[in-house]
Specification:
This protein is mostly helical. Helix content is 74%, strand content 0%. The protein is built from 14 helices and no strands. It has helices at 4-38, 41-44, 59-65, 70-101, 107-119, 126-135, 142-167, 170-178, 183-194, 196-212, 215-220, 230-235, 245-270, 276-280. Helix 10 packs antiparallel against helix 13. It is globular and about 75 Å long. The chain starts with a helix and ends with a helix.
Length: 281
């Protein structure tokens, strides 16, 4: 009997070892990016890789934030991302409510179309979207980029919010209506607060998707270089001597920082059970 826990542990050893290897392979590029951002230039250009630098410098961060256009492109990324998330939430909330709560002809076909749009590869839309933007004189505009990101994130937002809405008992709204609330007031006062985890989860997905997107931003913003987003700017960040890897990695670290902060702030609320508050209330 005393050897049984040891046998169970040995059986799980390959799985745990595999998980550690996958974790290490996933984390190492991020570690190397942050490490390079703080390395002195001599360590970056050394023939032998330096995994633990002997000194730390903030020079690369200074070079990144003072580079021409850094804050402008940061603002462009923030405007496009915020606009995409807000538009997707506003439209998807109404669509998800109609699918989850109402019964109407063509509802199943609509849901099927949303699923098909979700699984369609974004890369297949690059050329059609470019042709449409060109023919409608919508190239080189942040508005066009916002609408494209909105189109990309909308199907997932509808599907996710529909799942969250379906998990909230409709009887809660009916009880509020019995107490004198209209249907809209019952949704606003009862369902909407319980939907907060779903809204936060979909907002986080939309933010990450739009914030990191490169292909559409690179194709739709061609002539007006001042309207580029930060991922496109990072791909061409260099100086007269070539690519400044220290400043590039510092800028990449600053670029990843908003997503990391947003995730750390929202992770607990996203994981909160939606109907737990209703049961307690």
């Amino acid at each position: 009997m005393s050897t049984r826990p040891a046998r169970v542990a040995l059986r799980g050893l390959p799985v745990n070892a595999g998980a550690l290897i996958v974790f290490a392979l996933s984390v190492f590029p991020v570690y190397w990016m942050i490490l390079t951002a703080f390395k002195p230039t001599a360590d970056i250009q050394a023939e032998t890789p330096v995994f633990l630098p002997t000194s730390v410098t903030l020079e690369h961060f200074s070079d990144a934030v003072t580079a021409d256009g850094f804050w402008s492109f940061w603002r462009n990324s923030l405007l496009v991302t915020a606009g995409c998330v807000l538009l997707a939430l506003a439209v998807a909330l109404g669509a998800a409510f109609a699918v989850a709560r109402l019964r109407w002809k063509g509802r199943r076909g609509f849901v099927l179309m949303v699923f098909v749009a979700q699984v369609a590869p974004w890369e297949a839309l690059l050329i059609p979207m470019y042709v449409i933007a060109r023919d409608t004189d919508m190239l080189d505009r942040l508005t066009t980029l916002t609408l494209v990101y909105f189109m990309i994130t909308l199907p997932f937002t509808i599907v996710t919010l529909r799942s969250f809405l379906s998990a909230i008992p409709a009887e809660l709204e009916e009880a509020a209506q019995v107490d004198g609330c209209t249907r809209a007031a019952a949704f606003r006062r009862v369902t909407f607060p319980l939907l907060a985890p779903g809204l936060l989860a979909t907002s986080l997905f939309g933010f990450i998707t739009a914030w990191n997107e490169f292909a559409f931003a690179n194709m739709l913003i061609i002539k007006n270089q001042d309207d580029r987003t930060l991922p496109v700017w990072l791909s061409s960040f260099s100086n007269v001597f070539g690519t400044d890897w220290g400043a590039t990695m510092a800028a990449s670290t600053l670029f990843a920082l908003p997503v990391l902060v947003l995730f750390l702030v929202l992770q607990r609320r996203v994981a909160t059970g939606m109907t737990g508050g209703a049961v307690k209330g």
